Amino acid sequence: MFPFIRLRFIRLLCLIGLLGGSAVAQAAIYPLGEGRLIGSPMHVEVPDNGGSLEELAAQFQVGLYAMLAANPGVDPFLPRPGRTLTIPSQLLLPDVPRKGIVINLAELRLYYFPEGEDKVYVYPIGIGRVGRETPEMETRIVSKQPDPVWIPPASIRAEHLAQGDPLPERVEAGPDNPLGKFAMRMAYGHGEYLIHGTNKNFGVGLRVSAGCIRLRAPDIEQLFNMVPVGTPVRVINQPVLVSQEPDGRRWIEVHQPLSRTQEEYDGDGAPLVLSDQVQAFINFPYTDLDVVDQALLERSGMPVVIGWN
């Protein structure tokens, strides 16, 4: 299981802004086939000049949380030069239609399926923190804004004021704007949520936002230029993904479920609840239950074979 002491450590790092790093890559692009397994495993050595895990995550277009889950015990500041790291570059597509934008909160990933093309763009994202959760929803991109102006909601201004960190009523475009250079607006109920950039790279791949979806600067620019207004958006929460592939292999991919309370976040985390569909998949004949148990325990976020059909 992902060590929760590390989760608290990461939260502290984010609060004090110590995790730096620069975004040097854009989306990972995968061809689509009949199955849901995409990509292949990748392993790299930490270079002699080192670098933080965030810098390495940005280089290979994955999130910080995903890198930590795939490499337990690695120092996020100074991974040891020469150490071999696993890049979580193989994954199972979520069990939803391949259309428009799909955001799986549990994975901290955004998928974009361009219409008429047999490929998918995959981006690491930051999502809402505990108490400011990003909701599950089905919506559309209703507008796009380059150089967005940020008008902090009253609730966020009150929260910052209570912490002795008052916010202005309006933040113009520029380096101090937390929305970055591009924003796409989604309607939801009587409110709205944004898919936007950031002026703080460390927030990507973690739960640090007030509910919006946060991407690294080059990622949001690429996505912004591809996605038309009206594109459907589906936000889901699937911590356990399964698939039977055309070659007969049966796979499972397990992520740590999102904590919904501060007690869960500070303690042992949210319980992992398996859906009826996943239970039936696991109980299929010829499943290696020892491998399943290990996957459910480790929650590495990487797909593993649990049997053959």
Automatic annotation (TrEMBL):
Main location: periplasm
Superkingdom as given in the UniProt entry: Bacteria
Domain L,D-TPase catalytic stretches: 99-236
Matches recorded under PROSITE patterns: LD_TPASE
One Pfam family it belongs to: Ldt_C
Signal sequence annotation: 1-27
Keyword Transferase part of the UniProt annotation: yes
Gene3D superfamilies: L,D-transpeptidase catalytic domain-like
Pathway: Cell wall biogenesis; peptidoglycan biosynthesis
InterPro entries hit by this protein: LD-transpeptidase, LD_TPept_cat_dom, Ldt_C, Transpep_catalytic_dom
Entry's localization field: Periplasm
Active site, renumbered: 196 (proton donor/acceptor), 212 (nucleophile)
Key word Membrane present: no
Family statement: Belongs to the YkuD family.
Name of the molecule in the record: L,D-transpeptidase family protein
Organism: Pseudaeromonas paramecii
Phylogenetic classification of the source organism: Bacteria, Pseudomonadati, Pseudomonadota, Gammaproteobacteria, Aeromonadales
